[in-house]
Amino acid sequence: MKTKYDPRHQKRRETVQILFAESFTKQPELSNMAKEILSNKENFDIQIIQAAPAWPIEKLNKIDLAILRLAIYELDKKSIPPKVVIDEAVELAKEFGADNSSSFINGVLGTIYKRQLGDVEAIYSEGTI
């Protein structure tokens, strides 16, 4: 059973905190996961912009942005079930974000996940796989 003391959840919390701090000032030490996320930040931001066109990146709450980037990174890796990734992101939003952060993050990630599913379905229907 998942708890807030689960080591995987703790690692996500730490990564979100690093990403959040990095949005204000360069951090002296970054975890490997944070480095990978930051190196792909532009790609993740494009996905966020496409999923939430009414919300410009620069207007998003910095903690929400950090949570979204972590979750998209995990969705792209495909080593964790998407529903787990989304659930974890929503829990982090409840813990760190504003009142409406959890529903916003759930909606954005749901849209991104559906697009990823659509891409896979398109590949299958084209006979590429």
From TrEMBL:
Signal peptide: none annotated. One of its GO terms (biological process) is DNA-templated transcription termination. InterPro entries: NusB-like_sf, NusB_fam, NusB_RsmB_TIM44. SUPFAM superfamilies: NusB-like. NCBIfam families: nusB. PANTHER family: ANTITERMINATION NUSB DOMAIN-CONTAINING PROTEIN, N UTILIZATION SUBSTANCE PROTEIN B-RELATED. This is Transcription antitermination factor NusB. It comes from Candidatus Woesebacteria bacterium RBG_13_34_9.
